[in-house]
Amino acid sequence: MTASGVDVAPAHVLDAGTVADVMAQANAALDWLPRVHSAAEQIGTLGDMIDAGWVDVARIDRQIVGFVARRGSEIHGLYLLPSQQGSGIARRLMDHAKTGREDLGLWSFAANTRAARFYVKAGFAEVARSDGAGNDFGLPDIRFEWQKGRD
């Protein structure tokens, strides 16, 4: 299914387990990404983000297939089920996150070259790199930023 049949809306607290499963499946597809958080920790963290109003989900026929977590101008996560990658849903979620914003920023692991290509296509520019000392995984990452009108 293409992104045209996708509904994007705020997540509900009862979605935390499903949202965490989307994240777990997406992360499991990255063989270089270490597992540092338990499933319970992920559900708890995502439940807190949902409670705070940070999470919007993409649904196809009421089934959650992806989500974006944004607080203010900072994207904290963009995840899709691996089967949905390349379908336009991530772009739909990112466009939704941009709505009403003048700018956005996010960090992405340097090893995630597919994500980096996506962010550049979505109008983000690389502005910094780190050695990973500041993230839970200890992996080098890249800072991307978007400004309205630049894409």
Would you give an account of this structure?
With 151 residues, this protein is an alpha+beta fold. It contains 4 helices and 7 strands; from the N terminus they run E-H-H-E-E-E-H-E-H-E-E. The protein has helices at residues 16-28, 39-51, 89-98, 113-121, and strands at 7-10, 55-60, 63-71, 74-80, 103-109, 125-130, 141-147. It has a 4-stranded antiparallel sheet with strand order 1-2-3-4, sandwiched between helices. The chain starts with 6 loop residues before the first strand and ends with a strand.
- What general form does the structure show? globular
Compressed to H and E, one letter per element, the order equals EHHEEEHEHEE
- The neighbouring-strand order within the major sheet is 1-2-3-4
The largest pleated sheet is described as: 4 strands, antiparallel
Q: What portion of the residues fall into strands of 2 or more residues?
A: 25-35%
- What distance separates the N and C termini? 26 Å
Return residue spans where pLDDT drops below 50 for at least 5 consecutive residues. Answer: none
Considering DSSP H and I runs of 4 or more, what fraction of the residues is helical? 25-40%
Number of H- or I-type helical stretches: 4
Helices and strands: which structural class? Answer: alpha+beta
Keywords:
4-stranded antiparallel beta sheet, 30% strand, globular
Question: How would you sum up this structure in a few lines?
Answer:
This protein has 4 helices and 7 strands, in the order E-H-H-E-E-E-H-E-H-E-E.
